[in-house]
Amino acid sequence: MAQNYNTKNDNSSKLLMGVLVGAAVGAAIALLDSNTREQVKTGSKNVGSSTSGFVRNVKDNPGEFKNDLSGRFQSAVSTLKNAMSEAQSLYEKVNEDVVPQVEAIRESASDIVDTAKEATEDAKDIGGQVADAGSEVKEGVSSSAGSTGSTGSSSSNDSVVQLNKKSQNTVDASPQGDIPGDVGRNK
């Protein structure tokens, strides 16, 4: 494990060294341009003069600097306290308003899921009953057809469709078993 740590440190050192060398080479190449050199000189003078002015102000008026710095810290602390108070209020509001609503939604969703499961079970039961009813109808039709075929005679009284007496007499009187008249007959 110590060897891995040393390897990582070596890699980090190599990376840092590469970054520093690259920055130095980049800065040297940039300074080859006269405009860049002038900007670096001007910027350095400005930084130097502002720093010396700041140091001079601190030397001349240390109490004012201290009061100014203290005022800035107090302002930052006040702003931070205000932000923390608002964050606490937001946290309380979320706990009082949002969390109960989320809990109610979760319970409602649970109830909906339970109701859907019950409806699914009921639908399966209904489907089973419909299937049973279909089987019963099928068995009734096939047993009626099977009893007609087993006797060898096919009378119109044994058919599934029942006709009233007048219609049955008309069908029986027809030599071809169809309704007399011009419909369906060849002349």
UniProtKB/TrEMBL annotation:
UniProt KW keywords: Membrane, Transmembrane, Transmembrane helix
Spans through the membrane: 15-32
Composition bias type Basic and acidic residues, residue spans: 57-69
Bias-annotated ranges (Low complexity): 142-156
Name under which the protein is recorded: YtxH domain-containing protein
Positions with biased composition (Polar residues): 41-54, 157-173
Membrane listed as a keyword: yes
Superkingdom, natural source: Bacteria
Span list, region Disordered: 40-69, 118-187
